[in-house]
Design a protein that fits this description.
The complex is a heterodimer of chains A (127) and B (413).
Chain A (H helix, E strand, L loop, with lengths): L5 H13 L22 E8 L2 E8 L2 H14 L4 H6 L4 H4 L3 H4 L2 H4 L1 H20 L1
Antiparallel strand pairs in A: 1-2
Helix pairs in contact in A: 1-2, 2-7
Chain B lengths: L1 H4 L5 H6 L7 E2 L2 E2 L1 E2 L10 H14 L9 H21 L7 E4 L2 H16 L5 E5 L8 H10 L2 E5 L9 H7 L4 E7 L11 H10 L3 E5 L11 H4 L3 E5 L10 E5 L1 H6 L10 E4 L4 E3 L13 H17 L1 H20 L4 E4 L8 E6 L4 H10 L2 E2 L1 E3 L4 H6 L5 E5 L6 H19 L1
Parallel strand pairs in B: 3-15, 5-6, 5-7, 7-8, 8-9
Antiparallel strand pairs in B: 1-2, 4-10, 9-10, 11-12, 13-14, 14-17, 16-17
Helix pairs in contact in B: 3-11, 4-11, 5-6, 12-15
Classes of the chains: A alpha+beta (127), B alpha/beta (413).
Chain lengths: 127, 413
């Protein structure tokens, strides 16, 4: 479990962030900024063969790591799966303490934004 | 000089009064360096709070029973202690509020609604905390008045020469801080007040960062209004003070209506109470007001000059150490500062730095510190801010510096 060693946790999260595929600068727009984060987090979504693919980046290493975890878990799923996703793993891997209050790192805002994309794209598919 | 005569502060004895400092955070000894946000409370303040609820708690001013008498006496004793603390002329000039923010809002709204007219001007500084910007923006918009800003130098000092150009016959209020929460700069309060008064403007000083360690004499300063917070001077949270000259307060309409602030109430007409009660609607934060007296006694017991001298030593040491680290840039290098040290590190976002420092048990603040215009001036998003109190030690600075160096190393890889 990671929740005993904060330094290890941050290192791990930052390493995950390093592995996030680069987001094209053209997508790092004002419109793609996730509101409610202390850092800048960009998030964009595209449909590809019925699956929602996310692109993300951040100007801080820790937040980049956090958004990369969500991208890993949610990208490539159907819009409906994203809407229905229950992110129990955060608790399971001991990240709750690390995530802290939703406000301070915007983790909740990122999840919310991804779910909004899921909702929007699932509506499009239904239409 | 007083500092030389007195024995140096025994920091170990002082620290023993702060039980909260003795804890581990993320497996490391807590090093609390976020004192500009709020400082910790000595045991005597915590005891005063408990004692009050265990022995004296009752609503004040209205009751004739014994507990109410005791509670009222304790409450008003703090008001008298605050009067002495800032050398106000009269005890009625001390108003209890929720904090500096409410104190400023009270003046902006109550004074502003009566004395600010279309085309009038309010002058603030580029150093201000949002709490000394937004209330003025709001009232200026409401009244059609204009908000102007005193510029600062790269060092983070108000440019005194520019003030003359900004003060006009339309300037009605000048509001600025005694010391900057983001940079630590101490402003030449008396000089600015005199300039403002020379053209007939009133002055409000935001003293939130001053009262725990700077000499504050509102009569000597001749401030019209002086606002500060209990929780930034070793006192409880949710409480602040507005000092206002009687002549000013009496001219102002009430801020909030309700119980306590009235003389007589009928559906036809209601008359208002005298100061300070006119501005203290409803049941106040009785217990915390009572506990504030202990915080004042704590400060005065050790002596502000001694507290300031100790913090100055810590600040000087920390500043010197930081200057040795490559890539670290200190933001705000005024000639005179309170114990606040803001900095940025090349290539590392302050948010990441703050997270790492926390992982090592060091509590610092990151971001814009509620001074976004100030950050814009420096063209940065925010800083890491270490701020010191009387209980911080050189050893703690060493831990902080060590943690910072280790974090910078991590990012190099």
């Amino acid at each position: 479990m990671l929740d005993n060693d904060m330094e290890m946790m941050i290192s791990y999260v930052m390493e995950l962030g390093d592995q996030l595929p680069a987001m094209p600068v053209s997508l790092q727009t004002e419109g793609n900024i996730v509101k409610g984060c202390q850092s800048k987090v960009w998030l964009s979504a595209d449909m590809n063969e019925g699956k929602l693919l996310f692109n993300a980046d951040s100007n801080t290493a820790v937040t980049k790591g956090l958004v990369s975890i969500l991208v890993r878990v949610l990208s490539g799923r159907t819009p409906q799966e994203i809407v229905d996703a229950d992110l129990f793993f955060i608790d399971k891997i001991g990240m709750n303490r690390f995530i802290g209050t939703q406000r301070s790192n915007g983790f909740g805002s990122m999840i919310k934004q991804m779910k909004i994309y899921g909702l929007a794209f699932s509506a499009k598919t239904d239409a | 000089m007083e500092i030389l005569k007195e024995a140096k502060l025994n920091i170990e004895t002082i620290r023993a009064e702060f039980p909260i400092l003795d804890q581990q955070v993320n497996g490391k000894q807590l090093v609390y360096l976020d004192n500009a946000a709020t400082n910790q409370k000595p045991q005597r303040v915590i005891d005063a709070l408990s004692h009050f609820y265990q022995n004296d708690n009752a609503n004040i001013h209205r009751g004739i029973h014994t507990l109410s008498e005791r509670s009222t006496a304790a409450f008003e004793a703090t008001r008298a202690a605050v009067q002495t603390f800032i050398n106000a002329n009269e005890v009625e000039e001390i108003i209890f509020t929720k904090g500096t923010t409410e104190s400023i809002n009270l003046v902006a709204s109550s004074w502003g609604r009566k004395f600010l007219n279309e085309g009038d001007e309010v002058l603030i500084s580029a150093l201000e905390h949002h709490s000394n910007i937004v209330p003025w923006q709001m009232i200026c918009e409401e009244r059609g008045a204009i908000l102007k800003v005193m510029p600062i130098s790269q060092n983070g000092e108000i440019i005194l020469e520019e003030i003359e150009n900004l003060l006009t016959e339309r300037t009605k209020m000048v509001a600025f801080n005694h010391a900057s929460n983001s940079l630590g700069s101490i402003n030449p309060v008396k000089t600015i007040i005199d300039k403002a008064h020379a053209i007939g403007a009133k002055v409000l000083v935001d003293g939130a960062q001053a009262t725990s360690h700077l000499h504050v004499d509102v009569q000597a300063l001749n401030a019209d209004f002086y606002a500060f917070s209990a929780h930034k001077m070793y006192g409880p949270t949710g409480l602040g003070v507005l000092y206002g000259k009687r002549t000013e307060l009496e001219k102002m309409p009430p801020y909030q209506g309700g119980g306590e602030m009235i003389k007589d109430v009928s559906f036809e007409k209601t008359s208002y109470n005298d100061i300070p009660y006119k501005f203290e609607a409803g049941t106040p934060d009785i217990a915390n007001v009572v506990a504030l007296k202990s915080a004042i006694e704590f400060i005065e017991g050790f002596g502000k000059e001694n507290i300031a001298a100790h913090e100055a030593e810590i600040l000087a040491y920390a500043t010197a150490e930081l200057k040795k680290i490559e890539g670290v840039k200190i933001i705000g290098e005024a000639k005179e500062k309170v114990g606040v040290l803001s900095f940025i590190v090349e290539g590392i976002h302050h948010f990441d730095l703050g997270m790492w420092m926390d992982a090592k048990g060091v509590a610092v603040r990151t971001g814009h510190h509620c001074t976004q215009p100030l950050m814009d001036f420096y063209c940065i998003e925010g800083t890491v801010r270490a701020s010191f109190a009387v209980y911080n030690t050189i050893e703690e600075v060493d831990i902080f510096v060590g943690a910072l160096k280790a974090t910078i190393e991590k990012f190099k890889r």
